[in-house]
Design brief:
Elements: E1 17-19, H1 23-29, H2 51-62, E2 67-69, H3 73-80, E3 85-90, H4 95-104, E4 108-111, E5 123-130, E6 135-142, E7 145-149, E8 152-158, E9 166-171, E10 174-179, H5 181-193, E11 204-206, E12 227-233, E13 239-247, E14 250-254, H6 255-268, H7 275-299, E15 309-310, E16 315-320, H8 327-339, E17 344-348, H9 358-367, H10 371-381, H11 390-423, E18 427-431, H12 457-473, E19 478-483, H13 486-492, H14 499-515, E20 520-523, H15 528-540
Parallel strand pairs: 1-12, 3-6, 16-18, 16-19, 17-18, 19-20
Antiparallel strand pairs: 2-3, 4-5, 4-15, 5-6, 7-8, 9-10, 11-14, 12-13, 13-14
Helix pairs in contact: 5-6, 8-15, 10-11, 11-12
């Protein structure tokens, strides 16, 4: 194929190399596998791949699925390890088989608001859990690759048959097809064509910034660096091409060729006329909405739906257990794991060192040194309102009653907020959860029973009871009880709780499980990693 001469000042000693010949498309249409079986498997450094990734690709190969990874090898390592996305291109005819395989592996799909840049037809986010490691794999699955502005990807250009050549890598004995460097550069240039701008007198545009990360393997060998041509076979047999210049410093594309490529892609997809201006306008409107929404999400967390949420919607998870069972540690750990890709929030329902109302925390700091004396005075007062100590004891009892109502109001607000977050699609991990069965234990009511008969204070006591009854009606979708021996609690938090109080909490938890058979029990005596993996399993299977 003849190529126009370069602009003056650019020296190209070798003829341009064509990338993406159309003859391979016919081979794909004929049903012949496009993987280069004659070539040896590409070497890949030792990858700490998740076992679920190996199991997934082995199932794909055994079922004869037509698929391939469309990303560079550098990020592929992180993707297999569950630390980055895996960009997967799938033949649309194999989509039902794909869904069947990932469903058997407990995979789930997420949904996003339409204002985000990753929302377009033919693209889905799938997640597969790796229970032994307490992590999950992210599949960025494409039935077809669409190009366009960042928030206006409307032009389908590439499908599985449009990839001219697949290479293979071997990970733990499993062969995984990856896109060839030539096709990788074709995809990158087609995407770059819609998202670049240059001054009119510039003939070559440098593909720099984040675009350099799109390809790690140069399409031309080091000895053949120079001019190349990316060829495209579009709909209706339309042909398009774009010259690119490869050097040791990076990649440059011809500005005029990029403009012609944009027009050809639009025309091949049935869009003619002033659609370039329309695309820019829609992109600007959606990006403005996106930036405004992200800013509001930072200012008011949980008020708006997250970027990604499970297709089945959000839900509330409560971790309940005595002191020393690792509730706060596991809540922090689970929040970090799920927040990697999903909308996830953490709620604290206790009155310890966690988050809470500033008024309650300030009062708690002031009163904490005198708490035992106040409780003793309130208990000593009893029902004898005419005793000499009534002025001190009655005041202490009233203070305790107001304090209990303040705590109940705070917990009620946290419970309602957790459920509001869940309705917006967030996974809410709650450290503790209030119960109305027994007073004084497991974040239950705290008003002493004898105050119900004290005139004036009985109103506060009944108000607290009603608040806890309302909270009992707002149960979490999943409750996990962390149980263990007292020795474990004493080892982790020495002197935090007495054995009698510890046994009372375990007994109350057993009574709660008798009333609600859906509560699940986790052995908290194991290590942090083992307990976290078990919690991760229960939460994931509840999606």
């Amino acid at each position: 194929m003849l190529v126009e001469a370069l602009t003056p000042g650019v020296n190209v000693p070798a003829p341009a190399r064509v990338v993406g010949a159309s003859s391979s498309i016919n081979k794909a249409d004929a049903g012949v596998s496009q993987t280069d079986a004659s070539a040896s498997l590409l070497p890949l450094e030792t990858v700490p791949a998740l076992p679920i990734a190996i199991e997934l690709f082995r199932a794909f190969n055994e079922s004869g699925l037509k698929y391939g990874i469309i990303q560079d090898l550098a990020s592929l390592q992180s993707g297999l390890a569950g630390r980055d996305d895996l960009d997967l291109l799938l033949d649309k005819h194999d989509y039902p088989v794909f869904c069947s395989i990932v469903s058997k592996l407990h995979g789930c799909r997420s949904v996003s608001l339409s204002c985000y840049d990753n929302v377009c037809a033919g693209r889905e986010d799938w997640f597969l859990p790796d229970f032994p490691n307490g992590r999950y794999l992210h599949l960025d699955m494409h039935i077809g690759i669409r190009v366009g502005w960042e928030f206006r990807k409307r032009y389908p250009v590439f499908d599985y048959a449009a990839i001219t050549r697949w290479e293979s890598i071997c990970v733990d004995g499993v062969s995984i097809p990856v896109v060839s460097p030539e096709d990788e550069i074709r995809i990158t240039i087609a995407r770059f064509a819609f998202r670049t701008w240059a001054l009119p007198w510039r003939q070559w545009i440098t593909v720099g910034g984040g675009w350099r990360d799109q390809f790690a393997r140069p399409p031309l060998p080091s000895g053949q660096q120079g001019l190349g041509v990316a060829e495209y076979t579009l709909g209706g047999g339309r042909l398009a091409s774009c010259r690119f210049l490869q050097s040791v410093d990076g990649l440059m594309a011809n500005r005029r060729d990029l403009a012609r490529l944009r027009r050809s892609i639009r025309e091949a997809c049935g869009f003619t006329g002033g659609y370039g201006i329309a695309d820019a306008g829609v992109h600007l409107a959606r990006k403005t909405s996106y930036l405004a929404l992200r800013s509001l999400q930072r200012l008011m967390p949980g008020t708006f739906p997250p970027k990604r949420r499970p297709a089945a919607g959000g839900f509330v998870v409560a971790l309940v257990g005595p002191d020393g069972m690792g509730k706060s540690t596991q809540a922090d750990r689970l929040t970090r794991i799920f927040r990697w890709k999903f909308g996830c929030a953490q709620a604290y329902v206790g009155i310890g060192d966690g988050n809470g109302w500033w008024l309650r925390k300030a009062l708690q700091t002031l009163v904490f040194p005198y708490r035992r004396r106040l409780k003793s005075l309130a208990q000593h007062d009893g029902n004898n309102s005419f005793s000499r100590n009534w002025s001190k004891g009655g005041l202490a009892a009233a203070a305790l009653a107001f304090w209990a109502v303040l705590i109940a109001l705070e917990r009620y607000a946290v419970v309602k907020r957790a459920h509001r977050w869940a309705t917006r699609g967030l996974i809410v991990i709650c450290d503790r959860w209030p119960q109305a069965l027994c007073s004084g234990y497991l974040d239950g009511p705290t008003v002493p029973p004898h105050l119900f008969s004290v005139p004036g204070l009985s109103v506060l006591a009944r108000l607290e009871q009603r608040l806890y009854q309302k909270m009992a009606e707002c149960r979490p979708q999943l409750t996990l009880h962390l149980v263990s021996d007292f020795a474990v609690s004493e080892q982790r938090k020495p002197g935090e709780i007495r054995k009698e109080a510890f046994d009372a909490r375990l007994s109350l938890m057993a009574e709660l499980r008798d009333r609600d058979k859906n509560i699940r029990t986790i052995d908290a005596s194991a290590g942090i990693e083992a307990v976290g993996q078990e919690l991760f399993r229960h939460i994931w299977l509840s999606f």
